[in-house]
From TrEMBL:
Belongs to the bacterial ribosomal protein bL21 family. One of its GO terms (biological process) is translation. Keywords: Ribonucleoprotein, Ribosomal protein, RNA-binding, rRNA-binding. This is Large ribosomal subunit protein bL21. One of its GO terms (molecular function) is structural constituent of ribosome. HAMAP family: Ribosomal_bL21. PANTHER family: 50S RIBOSOMAL PROTEIN L21 (PTHR21349), LARGE RIBOSOMAL SUBUNIT PROTEIN BL21M (PTHR21349:SF0). Pfam families: Ribosomal_L21p. GO terms for cellular component: cytoplasm; ribonucleoprotein complex; ribosome. This protein binds to 23S rRNA in the presence of protein L20. Part of the 50S ribosomal subunit. Contacts protein L20. It comes from Arthrobacter alpinus.
Length: 102
């Protein structure tokens, strides 16, 4: 089984061909291709970790859609002072499909 550990939007993800990965928003339209930098490659029994060998590894992905994550509510409160603050956040995400590891 061939899989790779790639850097995807500030995180590391274990991917193989055909996987769907949700990552931070990447520029480009739906259907565009992007290349993810590989940090480790496992090809059957062979494991590649050397930086010069990983420079030749290409992990390509196709962008499927743009979406937004769940709403996160941030609340701050200080007792006896009347201070209350409430704000929300929704992370912008992209869903990609891994098309090849070469």
């Amino acid at each position: 089984m061939v899989y790779a550990i790639v850097r995807a939007g500030g995180r590391q993800e274990k991917v193989s061909v055909g996987d769907h990965v949700t990552m931070n928003r990447v520029p480009g339209g739906v259907g565009s291709t992007l290349e993810l930098p590989a940090l480790l490659l496992v090809d059957g029994e062979k494991i590649t970790t050397a930086a010069k060998d990983l420079a030749n590894v290409k992990v390509t992905a196709e962008k499927l859609e743009d979406l937004r994550g769940p709403k996160i509510v941030i609340q701050k409160f200080k007792n006896k002072t009347g201070y209350k603050k409430r704000q929300g956040h929704r992370q912008e995400l992209s869903k990609v499909k891994i098309t090849s590891i070469a």
